[in-house]
Amino acid sequence: MRFQMSLPFLLLVGLAVFLAACTPSSPATAEGTVEASTPSPTHSVPEVTPTEPLLATTTPTVAASNETPASAVSYSRQVQPIFDTYCISCHGVERIAAGFDLTSYEKVMSGSKNGAMVIPGSASESLLVRLVENGKMPKRGAKPTTEQIQILRDWVNAGAPNN
Ligand code: HEC
Fold first, then answer.
1. How far apart are CA 137 and CA 134, in angstroms?
2. How close is the Cα of 31 to the center of ligand 1, in Å?
3. Ligand 1, residues 85, 90, 148: which to mutate, most atoms within 8 A of Cβ?
4. Which has the least CB within 10 A, 22, 84, 93, 153?
């Protein structure tokens, strides 16, 4: 009787141990599989997507900023537009203040009633540059930006070419 009772009891214990060993291991594998598979494609997709447009915008910005100091200042494309915007209302269109007409290259270079306003190669000696630098010109209205004043300086220092 004792022998017969202990065999199924041992089998039950063995089953219980087997189930206990299996139960924790199967959800652990399931969790591991879910964690490993689900987040990794979600992370890798947005990581790649912003990297490509960032690189794409950086490349032309660097190329554009490298071109500006390398190439010479153009009178027709960069300097005359500054005069047209800030100066010619008083120096050429409504009146010609101080006899200084700024509507064309030839007139700018011929100076005012007091003589040359542009000394080619020397921005520091050119009254045109100095009066803009110290804010005396334009006498009224909007002022050129720092970048535009630098364009005037660079153009005069480059020999004030008609380019
Ligand atoms: C609102 C009118 C006005 C504007 C705009 C103006 N000027 Fe004048 N500018 C004058 C007057 C008026 C004089 C004569 C001196 C004075 O009254 O200060 C003068 C004088 C000058 C002189 C000195 C001429 C000399 O013989 O001594 C220079 C150089 C000059 N301007 C450059 C410029 C430049 C460059 C700009 C644009 C960035 C400009 N001006 C915009 C009114 C103006």
1. 8
2. 79
3. 90
4. 22
